[in-house]
Design a protein that fits this description.
The complex is a heterotetramer of chains A (224), B (552), C (317) and D (98). Chain A has a single domain (24-219), classed as Up-down Bundle (Four Helix Bundle (Hemerythrin (Met), subunit A)). The radius of gyration of chain A is 22 Å and the shape is elongated. Chain A starts with a strand and ends in a 5-residue tail after the last helix. By secondary structure, chain A is mostly helical. In chain A, 72% of the residues lie in helices and 1% in strands. Chain B is mainly alpha-helical and 552 residues long. Chain B has one domain (4-10, 31-551): Cytochrome c oxidase-like, subunit I domain (Cytochrome C Oxidase, Chain A, Up-down Bundle), CATH 1.20.210.10. Chain B has 17 helices and one strand. Chain B has helices at 14-20, 28-32, 37-65, 76-111, 120-142, 156-160, 165-192, 205-237, 250-267, 270-284, 291-304, 320-348, 357-380, 382-388, 392-422, 428-455, 469-499; one strand at residues 529-530. The two termini of chain B are 24 Å apart. Chain C has 317 residues and is α+β, with helices and mostly antiparallel strands. Chain C folds into two domains: 1-36 and 73-211, Cupredoxins -  blue copper proteins (Immunoglobulin-like, Sandwich), CATH 2.60.40; 214-306, Cytochrome Bc1 Complex, Chain D, domain 2, CATH 1.10.760. Helix content of chain C is 35%, strand content 20%. Chain C has helices at residues 13-46, 63-92, 198-206, 214-224, 227-230, 262-270, 293-305; strands at 99-106, 109-114, 119-121, 123-127, 132-138, 143-147, 152-156, 162-166, 172-178, 191-196, 249-251, 257-259. In chain C, strands 3-2-1-5-8 form a five-stranded mixed β-sheet, with helices on one face. Chain D is mainly alpha-helical and 98 residues long. Chain D is built from three helices and no strands. Chain D has helices at residues 8-30, 35-56, 64-89. In chain D, helix 1 (8-30) packs antiparallel against helix 2. Chain D starts with 7 loop residues before the first helix and ends in a 9-residue tail after the last helix. Classes of the chains: A mainly alpha (224), B mainly alpha (552), C alpha+beta (317), D mainly alpha (98). Chains in contact: A-B, A-C, A-D, B-C, B-D, C-D. Chains A and B meet through strand 1, helix 1 and helix 5 of A and helix 7, helix 8, helix 9 and strand 1 of B. The complex binds heme-A (2 copies), dinuclear copper ion and copper (II) ion.
């Protein structure tokens, strides 16, 4: 049996960054990247269940959905879209900073990304509070002036489920960014192995994309 | 793969390989914190066997209850809980992880010449998630069980059932993530970690089938997770998306459930097909016939399998036209399965066939899978399905595939790789006896159910009109033989792990890379990363080898 | 133990159709079983280890063969699909002139009402050689109305109307099963169909208490529940007249058109806001929860019955 | 090693385009265009998502494998949506049997 002695051939300085099952950093990075993209594909289908329900019910009850959507706060939804798009830009720059081994910029950008995530959550919180006082929360205090509130309640249930699931993702993202920022202080990501930053970036952009669809579907369905 | 095998590897003495194999460490800690894919495979093996045992006992109790038309052994609640437990545990806690998570975890990295899977820590996490999910499922059993059937149809499951639906749904939900992680790991491992020279069309077919399976795991399971999540929230809050009284739609649930569950049935057969594709060439001492066709058939099944879920809903009030789309696609998905079967058959031509235990299981697989698959065509044919939907015909169809096919494939694979896993041989004669017993017991258990189903016996009935009794009695008789057939390997496997004869690195003189290292394999699989220079299943040099069966 | 059967009785027109396809499928299965199992058996014997068979020049693949055994099953599959689909289409389409029977499923019984008003539980008496159309709904979970002797089955879904038809060809008694799992007593949600000669059926209709016809009950409800307060020519509310409505296209307020079928009528009563007729306001109250499934069916039968009369023009904008 | 460094200008341009599209979709949301409201909203959303994927997530410069992985989830979502809707949209079509 011929053999490449790759196991014993690790002479690069980056050696310690490579996990035992990989041959080199490149293989490791490729694996992590592919793994993340596959994870994102599962995420698409996870959210997909809700998007399917939304599509079906919107096609069954177009009028109720438009009427219900009218009660969402477009201003907050729109601002939040802008915020996420902006934070995504910062995140992309953070990956670049890591790649250029620029530690200070990296930390700053990670913190900024997290900050905008937090702003998003605060605005979302305000909106949820308004929804509560407007009696729009299904089951708990839903009060809809129509003889047949079911479809509107379904709209709001989907609204809360979709934005809620999205908010959970944002929260996770914020913690990831903060942790990465902390870890970046040791210089961990600026020695050539910036894979974790890149992976986290993919995640953050994905969460952004989900919101890009939620905004028109939930907020703009009824404002004419 | 290149043909130089066994003989070139230094066959160590027992004491020597015992010292440095992956099994050398014995502490509990070394098992619970392991990131070695081989050990994780073994952890999975033990876990799924526990669930198989529980679910089998449930099956045995159902079969005994069904001996008499008026039942009498148990209340209807109990029976309903039994088939639910049986179905959920068998599907999610036994069959789905069976070949992928046990055998796949164990051999996939070795087959491609890797030191481990791409994400070993995630791999361990996946096992913990599985155990955690299993704990929820068990908890729901302890608290009294669930009575919705494994399909959780709404609005029964959301509004009317008074059993522990949420904890069961949570269990399946969590176990689902363990499946997703396994799938992710396999896909990345296969893409990124193949040994030098191991191109896609040199991969063993088991790897192809696991790759196709993983695709389904990754793309279908999240939808199940969402669906079960919605069911649980519906039960808690009753918002009504599946409740027609509140404007919801129970049929939507069925779409979501089957979008996952039909592809999932291919999670429950593709790995078995993969195993058979290893066994048939090995014991015919011949390359597999039509290698690229068999490999691509796996992918075709995985992809087409996503397009047919509505065939479970032909009488659900789904649109007639949608029914037709799903029906025609169901016929098409059967074609690649046929291609596989024909290629296996052709492989035997001019082979030198050894009737070892794994080979018996492989042949059993083909026979039973073909019957199960062909009866699937009855169900895909719209007008016939109207009659047989939700009858014992369905029960017979899927047991033929899942038990006759996949479980048989699992047993075949387990016997085939057992020498690799433990370094020891099981008693061949007992192996053959068990294979024959399961085959006979199986047919007696499930063949009568086809007739019963066409007669109109609905499923999930614990009492039934007396004219159906004869078939139920036959089936129960078969089940007791089948049960014996499953208990036998359990006994001799345990025995052989300690007392079996040492197997040596390659008792079957097989060509796969996993056979080119010692048995049991060392911790990092290979002393040196192997290089692949040729096609798989190249038995040309080993054609006339006579595996000394008496000694095996 | 009763007689030993391998096939259920054939007691309806579609039973024959289904059985024909079934037997064909069995034949096709036998064909494939032969072409797979016989070679396996033959090879296993001929090429067993150590046998003296000729093993020179084995074939390891051939695209021609592969294409062949891919095409053949594809074509057979498409043919089988076509056959099944044609029959299915016939089974699923509601016949126009049939004896109407209303069936409501609930945990765990079948409630049946004939057009003449006669009601029964877990039994269905019908005349032979007449086309029978069932309108089915459930008041709780999903059930499924299954008569093996007729080879028909239809899920009975809460919140919607499904239909099932058959034309019995042989007098006798046959099983009704609920084949969709519906909870604890699912296995006991069974009954029987009694297929009778027409005269016997007519006599059976006369037995027991005299009942008013389903349409008559519906008419009474129409007045008792206040429908007529709005839906009548001299009402002070602006509401559509329902004469001639059934099976007609209805223009909706959002510009679309729907056909006024059973499901539409049902939704109009229970969820009036879902589809508003063009030119009217959404003032009709929802009767959801105020009417039983049987009463809704009766009301609809009434609205359908007035469909045939000439509809006066007043009331329509 | 494959590198992903892109000039910051690309990112800022993408960001600008995204903001413009946001403004556009927001405005259109208030106009009554009938069915086109939905169609335009989706077209814009898809464009935005593409921009993020192509530039921020570097799909534009990625290997074929990653592009495939990125699209496969979406394709499968479309399968789920379209086949399910094939049921909902054709339900009332069956004519009477005469
Ligand atoms: C491992 C599991 C598994 C597998 C692989 C399959 C494979 C198939 N299944 Fe099955 N099925 C189940 C598990 C499985 N099924 C389960 C669990 C249920 C019930 C769920 C429930 O309700 O609880 C079910 C139910 C089910 C239904 C719904 C029935 C109903 O509820 O009314 C249908 C309908 O079309 C169906 C069809 C098929 C088809 C066409 C295949 C095909 O893939 C089979 C393909 C194989 C062959 C056809 C044999 C080999 C081919 C040849 C020899 C060539 C000749 C071929 C042609 C002429 C085309 N199955
Ligand atoms: C996925 C894998 C799987 C496996 C391996 C099995 C294995 C078996 N299954 Fe099951 N089965 C399902 C999946 C599976 N099943 C599913 C998904 C359903 C649908 C559930 C639902 O409707 O929701 C189902 C439903 C189902 C039913 C229909 C219940 C109903 O609708 O009323 C029956 C009835 O006979 C049955 C029987 C069996 C038997 C006899 C075995 C045998 O293979 C088991 C063999 C093992 C033993 C028999 C036990 C060990 C032996 C002993 C303890 C010795 C003593 C035994 C006796 C005296 C009998 N199964
Ligand atoms: Cu009603 Cu089962
Ligand atoms: Cu299926």
């Amino acid at each position: 049996m011929e053999a490449t002695a790759s196991l014993n051939e690790r002479t690069e300085p980056t050696q310690s960054l490579v996990a035992r099952q990989f041959d080199d950093l490149e293989q490791q990075r490729g694996a992590a990247e592919l793994g993340m993209w596959i994870f994102l594909a599962t995420e698409v289908l996870f959210f997909g269940g809700l998007f399917l329900a939304y599509t079906v019910f919107r096609s069954l009850y177009p009028r109720d959905f438009a009427a219900a959507s009218h009660h969402t706060i477009v201003l907050i939804g729109g601002m939040n879209t802008a915020i996420l798009l902006f934070s995504s830009t910062l995140m992309a720059l953070a990956v670049r900073a890591a790649e250029l081994r620029n530690q200070t910029t990296l930390i700053r950008l990670l913190l900024a990304t997290a900050f905008f995530g937090i702003v998003f959550m605060v605005l979302k919180g305000i909106e949820y509070y308004k929804d509560w006082t407007d009696h729009l929360v299904p089951v708990l205090n839903f009060d809809w002036h129509s003889p047949n509130p079911g479809p509107a309640q379904i709209f709001f249930w989907l609204y809360f489920a979709m934005t809620g699931l999205h908010a959970i993702h944002i929260t996770v993202g914020i913690f990831v960014m903060l942790t990465l920022a902390l870890m970046a202080r040791t210089g961990k990501f600026t020695t050539g192995n910036y894979t974790p930053i890149e992976i986290a970036g993919l995640y953050w952009h994905f969460v952004d994309i989900v919101w890009i669809f939620l905004f028109p579907l939930l907020y703009l369905a009824g404002h004419r | 793969m290149n043909a130089r095998v066994a003989t070139e590897i230094d066959i160590r003495t027992e004491g020597e390989f015992a010292r440095e194999s992956y099994l050398s460490e014995h502490t509990v800690r070394s098992w619970l914190l392991t990131t070695d894919h081989k050990r994780i495979g073994i952890l999975y093996l033990f876990t799924i066997l526990i669930f198989f045992a529980i679910a089998s006992v449930a099956a045995a109790m159902m079969r005994i209850e069904l001996l008499h038309p008026t039942g009498g052994l148990m209340t209807s609640e109990t029976y309903n809980k039994l088939f639910t437990i049986h179905g959920t545990l068998m599907v999610w806690f036994f069959l789905i992880p069976s070949i992928p998570a046990v055998l796949g975890n164990f051999v996939l990295p070795m087959m491609i010449g890797a030191r481990d899977v791409a994400f070993p820590k995630l791999n361990l996490t996946s096992w913990y998630l599985f155990v955690f999910g299993g704990a929820f499922a068990t908890w729901s059993l302890i608290r009294g069980g669930v009575d919705t059937g494994w399909t959780f149809y709404t609005p029964y499951s959301t509004t009317y059932a008074n059993s522990h639906v949420i904890s069961m749904a949570a269990g399946v939900f969590i176990a689902g993530f363990s499946t997703i992680i396994t799938g992710m790991n396999f896909i990345v491992t296969t893409h990124k970690m193949r040994a030098p020279g191991l191109t896609w069309f040199r991969l063993p077919l088991f790897v192809w089938s696991l790759y196709a399976t993983s695709l389904i795991m990754v793309l279908a399971t999240p939808v199940l997770a969402m669906t079960l999540g919605l069911i649980s929230l519906e039960r808690i809050w009753g918002v009504g998306i599946f409740d027609p009284n509140l404007g919801g739609d129970p049929i939507l649930f069925q779409h979501m459930f089957w979008f996952y569950s039909h592809p999932a049935v291919y999670i429950m057969i593709l790995p078995g097909m993969g195993v058979v594709s290893e066994l048939i060439p090995c014991f015919s001492r011949k390359p597999i016939f039509g290698y690229p066709w068999v490999g691509c058939a796996s992918m075709a099944i995985a992809i087409l399998g996503f397009l047919v879920w509505g065939h479970h809903m032909f009488v659900s009030s789904q649109s007639v036209y949608a029914g037709m789309i799903f029906s025609v696609l169901s016929f098409l998905v059967a074609v690649p399965s046929g291609v596989k079967v024909f290629n296996w058959t052709a492989t035997l031509h001019k082979g030198s066939i050894h009737f070892t235990t794994p080979m018996l299981y492989a042949l059993g697989f083909i026979g039973l899978f073909v019957i199960g698959g062909l009866t699937g065509l009855f169900l895909a044919a719209l007008s016939v399905d109207v009659h047989v939907h939700d009858t014992y015909f369905i029960i017979a169809h899927f047991h033929y595939i899942m038990v006759g096919g996949m479980v048989t494939g699992f047993m075949g694979g387990l016997h085939y790789w057992w020498p690799k896993i433990t370094g020891r041989l099981y008693p061949e004669i007992w192996g053959k006896l068990a294979a024959l017993t399961t085959f006979l017991g199986f047919n007696l258990t499930f063949f009568p159910l086809f007739i019963l189903g066409y007669l109109g016996q609905p499923r999930r009935y614990h009492v039934y009109p007396p004219e159906f009794q004869i078939f139920h009695v036959l089936s129960t008789a078969g089940a007791s033989i089948l049960g014996v057939g499953y208990v036998m390997p359990l006994i001799y496997f345990i025995w052989s792990a300690k007392h079996g004869r040492a197997a040596g690195p390659n008792p079957w003189r097989a060509t796969g890379l996993e056979w080119q290292t010692s048995s049991p394999p060392p911790k990092h699989n290979f002393k040196e990363t192997p290089v692949v220079t040729g096609k798989p299943y190249d038995y040309s040099a080993e054609k006339d080898v006579d595996l000394d069966l008496a000694n095996l | 133990m009763d007689q030993f059967h391998l096939f259920p009785p054939q007691a309806s027109t579609s039973a024959q159709e289904v059985d024909h396809l079934y037997f064909t499928l069995i034949l096709i299965s036998l064909f494939f079983i032969t072409v797979v199992f016989l070679p396996i058996l033959y090879f296993c014997i001929k090429y067993r280890r150590g046998s003296a068979a000729d093993r020179s020049n084995p074939l390891n693949g051939s695209n021609l063969i592969e294409v062949g055994w891919t095409t053949l099953p594809t074509l057979m599959g498409l043919a089988l699909f076509g056959w099944g689909a044609v029959d299915y289409f016939r089974i699923e389409r509601k016949p126009a002139n049939a004896l109407q029977v209303q069936v409501v499923g609930k945990q765990w019984m079948w409630k049946v009402q004939h057009a003449e008003g006669k009601q029964e539980i877990n039994e269905l008496h019908i005349p032979v050689d007449r086309t029978i159309a069932l309108t089915l709904t459930s008041q709780d979970v999903i059930h499924s109305f299954f008569v093996p002797a007729f080879r028909v089955k239809q899920d009975v879904v809460p919140g919607k109307y499904t239909s099932e038809w058959f034309k019995p060809t042989r007098p006798g008694e046959y099983h009704i099963f609920c084949s969709q799992y519906c909870g604890t007593q699912h296995a006991k949600m069974i009954g029987r169909v009694v297929v009778m000669q027409p005269e016997a059926y007519a006599r059976w209709l006369q037995t027991g208490e005299q009942t008013e016809s389903i349409v008559r009950s519906g008419e009474r409800l129409f007045y008792d529940r206040g429908c007529s307060g709005c839906h009548s020519p001299n009402s002070k509310f602006h509401a559509p007249l329902l004469q001639g409505l059934y099976r007609k296209p209805v223009p909706l307020a959002d510009g679309t058109m729907v056909t006024a079928d059973d499901q539409y009528l049902r939704d109009s009563i229970l969820q009036p806001a879902k589809q508003i007729s063009a030119g009217y306001d959404n003032i009709m109250p929802s009767f959801s929860g105020h009417l039983t499934e049987e009463e809704i069916m009766q009301l609809i039968a009434y609205v359908k019955s007035i469909g045939r009369e000439e509809s006066p023009d007043q009331g329509k904008p | 090693m494959e590198t992903t460094t892109h000039p910051p200008k690309t990112y800022w341009k993408t960001c600008g385009a995204l903001m413009l599209l946001l403004a556009l979709t927001w405005t259109i949301g208030y106009a009554d265009l009938g069915l086109f409201n939905l169609i335009l909203a989706l077209v814009i959303a898809i464009t935005k998502a593409l921009l993020v994927a192509l530039f921020f997530m570097h799909i534009k410069s990625s290997s074929r494998l990653l592009r495939l992985a990125a699209t496969v989830g979406v394709i499968w979502l479309l399968i789920m949506l379209s086949l399910t809707l094939s049921d909902y949209f054709t339900r009332g079509w069956v004519p009477l049997n005469h």
